[in-house]
Amino acid sequence: MRKVVITMNEMKLSKRLQTVAEYIPDGAVIADIGSDHAYLPCYAVLNHIASRAIAGEITDGPFLSAKQQVEKLNLSSHISVRQGDGLEVIQKGEVDAITIAGMGGSLIAHILESGKDKLTGKERLILQPNIHAIHIREWLYKEGYALVSEMILEEDGKCYEVLAAEAGDKDAAYEGFSFEAGMLVGPFLAKEKNAVFTKKWTQELEHTEKIHEQISRAAQSGHNKQKLAELTKRIELLKEVIGHG
Ligand code: SAM
């Protein structure tokens, strides 16, 4: 690799993306889908975490930013910037790990579902949803991936989850835990129950209780009754998870 002069900004990733990078297996070839400025693949290659990388982007602006960033750092021999939708930018078997970060959980699950013909099942999937991680856990379970690790962190007042999955026993992570709650909040995160986790789900509980109260005061149509039953169930589940009896 050519020697490059790197500024602090280029070496220093957000705590969120740094956590994603920690899950990249040593020396892996990675694909970072929805790479935007390609900060994650640049960081991973510069720090010798990944041996090579593909930065995938669907949108013109971010695709150009990724290309410029990779060229600026003289990393073109190690990072291939490709424009396309989701996993269509990779060949089957081309990468050891796939990172998809900074999007909603449903979009990440959609990208995986529509590109699943590109997966051998042996890639490590490192997924960082900003919201609705449940859609990713459900997709992983449906497709038979083992959830192997999870992290939750707070940065600039926002909570982020990072999920790592690979081939293995899809049930193992959920053993000894309510399956429904595990899917919603994450089995590893629920067992660890750190301060960020407790804060996130306490806020969610308070929000759900508020909606429940508002609907309780409205006219009791069939639709509202059903909604109230759903909310009551969710409140019980969240109380169980947080440990507020
Ligand atoms: N991954 C970076 C991060 O975590 O900081 C960038 C996140 S940015 C909010 C989401 C990026 O994903 C955007 O640049 C968007 O163009 C891209 N994107 C959205 N859907 C995509 C898809 N189906 N395939 C590839 N890129 C996509």
Question: How would you summarize the topology of this molecule?
Answer:
Layout: H1 8-11, H2 15-22, E1 28-33, H3 39-46, E2 50-57, H4 60-72, E3 79-83, E4 97-103, H5 105-114, E5 124-129, H6 134-142, E6 145-155, E7 158-167, H7 179-185, H8 187-192, H9 195-217, H10 222-242
Parallel strand pairs: 1-2, 1-4, 2-3, 4-5
Antiparallel strand pairs: 5-7, 6-7
Helix pairs in contact: 5-6, 9-10
Would you give an account of this structure?
InterPro entries: SAM-dependent_MTases_sf (IPR029063), TrmK (IPR006901). This is YqfN. With 245 residues, the chain is an alpha/beta fold. The protein folds into two domains: 182 residues, Vaccinia Virus protein VP39 (Rossmann fold, 3-Layer(aba) Sandwich), CATH 3.40.50; 46 residues. The chain is 44% helix and 22% strand. It contains ten helices and seven strands. Strands 3-2-1-4-5-7-6 form a seven-stranded mixed β-sheet, sandwiched between helices. Strand 6 and strand 7 form a beta hairpin. Helix 5 runs parallel beside helix 6 and helix 9 runs antiparallel to helix 10. The longest helix is centred in the C-terminal third of the chain and has 23 residues. It is elongated, with a radius of gyration of 20 Å.
